[in-house]
Specification:
heterodimer, A: globular, B: mainly alpha, ABC transporter involved in vitamin B12 uptake, BtuC
Chain lengths: 311, 384
Amino acid sequence: MSDLLSQDFLTALIAGGLVAAVPLLYASLGELVAEQAGVLNVGLGGYMLLGAFLAFVITYNTGSEWLGMLAGIVAGAAGALVMAVLCVRMNLDQIVIGIAILLVAEGATSLLHGAAYAESRPSLGSPSELAIPGLKEIPILGESLFSQNAIVYIGIALAFVVGWVLKRTSAGLSIRAAGERPEALDAAGVSVTATRTWATLCAGGLAGLGGAYLVIVGAGSFTPFITQGSGFIAIVIAMLSRGRAPWTIVGAVLFGLSLSVATALQLIGVNIQTDYVQMLPFVVVIVVLVLFARRSYLPSALALPYVRGEK
Amino acid sequence: MRARVVAIGKSTLIAVVPIVLALVVMGILLAALGRDPFTFYADMFQRGLFEWQGFQESIIRSAPLLLIAAGLIVAFRASLWNLGGDGQFLLGAALTAGLAPSLLDALGVWPMLLITMAIAMLVGGAWTIIPAVLRGRYGVNEIITTLMMSFIGIGVANVLVKGPFRTDVGGVARTDVVPFDERFPLLFGTRIHLGFVIGLIAILAVHVLMTRTSLGLRMRILGASPRAALHAGLNPLRLTVIAFVLSGALIGLSGSVEILGVQGSFRADFNPAYGLLVIPLVFLARLNAIGSLALVIVFSVIQIGGESAAREADVTSDVLLVLVGLMLLFMAVVEYLRVRRGLGMAFVPPEVADRLRPPGGEGGGGAQAGEPRPALGAEKAGSR
C-alpha cells in the first residue's frame, strides 16, 4: 500500500488528472453559461473537436501554441455560431441540431485529418511557450502541479470570474433570466436572442479552447474522435454544478482524476481494468442523484426556444 | 382524395429535399478533397442498393437500427430524451454474447435465442428505471441521467466481456463465438436473418401502439404536456416509467439481434454508436414509425454502400457522419421554412387567401381569417 503514496504514482496521477481535467473544465464552464441562458449544447463535443483540429493545424504550421489556442477558440465558436443561428434565431430543436453538429464535426475533422495528415502523422513537441517558470522546484506537488502551464491557471481563475459575473453583474442577471424567464428579460427590454447567442458563442469558444488544450498539451497530436465522450461528460459536469461556476472545477478534477488513475496505477504495477475506474464517477453521481434528487435543479427554460408572445 | 395525395407528395418532397441538399454539399466537399463525387455516389448506390449482395447487407444492417428506432420513438413521443441508447444496446449485446454459448450447449438453438433476447430486453429496460424514476418523481433532467447510465452501461458491458464472459481462446478479449449455423435462421435462402423480421414487427407494433391504443395516446399526452396529463387524471410517473422501460427493452433487444444475427461474439470495446446515429433519423421522420422505417433503410443503404464507396475513394468512412449530420441540418431548416411559410399564409387578406386555398383543404383558422390580428392575441391572452 505504501506504493500508493509514492512520488511516481502521485506525480503521474495529478499530472495526468490535470491534463484530462482542463479540457473538461473549459467545456463545462462554457456549457454552464449557455445552460444558464437556456441553451443546451448537445454538440459540445463537436465544438471541442473543431477546436482541437484547427488548433493542431495552426500550431503545427506556425509553431505557436498561443496562436493554436486562439484558433481553438475561433473554431469552437464557429461551431457554436451554427447552433446559435439555427436554435436561438430560428428556434429549431436544440437536441436535433446539437447531434447534427456533433456528427458533422466528428466526420469532418476525421475526413480532413485523413486527407492532410494520414500518411505523415505529425506530432507537436512538448509545449514550451505556455509554461510558467520558477514553481517547478517544489517536491511532489512542484513536479505535477506547478509545472502546469498558464492555461490551467487561467481556467481556474475563469471559473471564479464566470461565477462572479453570473451572480453579481447585470450581464449575469440577463443570462440567468434568459434561461429562467425569457419573457421577463424581453419585457425588461433586453434581447433574449442576443443574450442567448453570446452565451452559446461563449460555450463554443471555451469548449474549443478545451479541445485545443487536449491536442497541444495533452496528446501532442490530433487523432480522429480524440475527445471521445468528453463533450457529454462536460455537459454532465455543467448540469451537476447547478449554475455555480466554481463547482465545475470540482467536477472536472473528479472526472479528470478518474480518467488518469488507471494509468497511474499501472505505473506502480497495479493492474486494474480502466473500465471500472472510468465508470466510477458516473456511479457516484447517479448514487448522489438518487439520494439527493430533490435538490437537483436546472433553468426552467432550458432547451426551450423563446418566441415572443407565445405561451 | 386529391388533397391527400397532394399532402403525401408534399411531405415526401419535404423529406427528399434535405437529403438531396446534403448530397450536394457533401459532393462539393468530396470534390474539394480531390475525389469525384459522382463516382462516389454511383458506387454508394450501386453497392448499397442495386447489387443483390449489397442490398442484402443493407437489409441486415437495418435490423438493429429498426429496433433502436422503435425504442426511441416510444420515448421521444412521450418527450423523454433517452440519449443512453448506446449503453442499453451494448448491455443487451454483451449479455447475449456472454450467455449464448453455454445456453446453446444446455438447451439448444431456439431456447437459447428466446432466452437471450428476453434477457437483453430485461436488462435494457432495467437500465432506464433510474432515469425514469428520477425524471418522473423529482423532475431530474433525463438527458444527463441517461447519458451517465449509458457510460456506466458501456463500462459494465466491457467488464463482463473482459471478465466472466471472456473466451479461453487467446488474443483479443471477446466472448466465445456462436457458430454460424446456430444463430438466427436465414430467410428464404437469402443472407437476411430473422432479426430483420423482428425489427419490422417491432416498428410496426410501435406504430400501432402509439397511434391506435389508449396507452399510446396517454404517452403522447404526457409528451405534449405533462400538466395536461396530470389534469386528465393520468399518472405521469407510471407513464414515464412505462415509456422508458419499453424504450430501453427495444434498444436492448437490438443489441441481442446484432450479436445473434451478425457478430456472433462480443469483442471488447465494440461500440458502433448506433444509438446516436438513429436519433436524427427518427427526427427526420418526425417520430413517425413508418417514416422511420423508410429512413432507416435509406440510411442502411447509405452506410453499407458508403463504406464500400469510401474504401474505393480512399477516404475514411467517417465521411458518412458528415452526410447524416448535413441531412439533419437541412431537414431542420426545411421544416423551419415550411412552418414559417404556413405562418405567413395566415396574414394574407382573407379574400386573397380564399382564392389561394384549395376547397376543403386544411383550414388553419381560415374561417376566422376575417378577424383582425388583435383578436388572435386576445384569445391567446385569455387562454393563459
